[in-house]
Amino acid sequence: MSATRVCALSELEQDLPLRVVVDDVPICVVLDSAAEVHAVGDTCTHGEVSLSEGFVEDDTVECWAHGSRFSLRTGQPLNLPAYEPVPVYVVQIDGDDVLIDPTVTKPAQ
Questions:
Q1: What is the pTM of this model?
Q2: CATH: 3.90.180.10, 2.60.120.10, 2.102.10.10, 2.40.33.20. Which one for 4-105?
Q3: Residues 12-69: pLDDT tens digits?
Q4: How far apart are CA 102 and CA 5, in angstroms?
């Protein structure tokens, strides 16, 4: 599969997560405070809660329900109650297009 356009870069607001679904895979897309675009699995590993409804600070996203924070770079949980990472997807920027292939994840770190 090839990368799919999920949104325009100009549509992303800094530190405001955006939920997209590509081939039935929910993904949380974030433009962080350093102007980097990240894409992680949108479902908190502690519960069935959408991370795109959470809060972004620096390069982390926090689940609004129970407070687990995940690294946008590695997917690793940074505090309990979550202890399993979320997948991190490779993001490509082509002009103003944000492209993601939900079958390509970054290696766990």
A1: 0.95
A2: 2.102.10.10
A3: 999 999 999 999 999 999 999 999 999 999 999 999 899 999 999 999 999 999 999 9
A4: 11
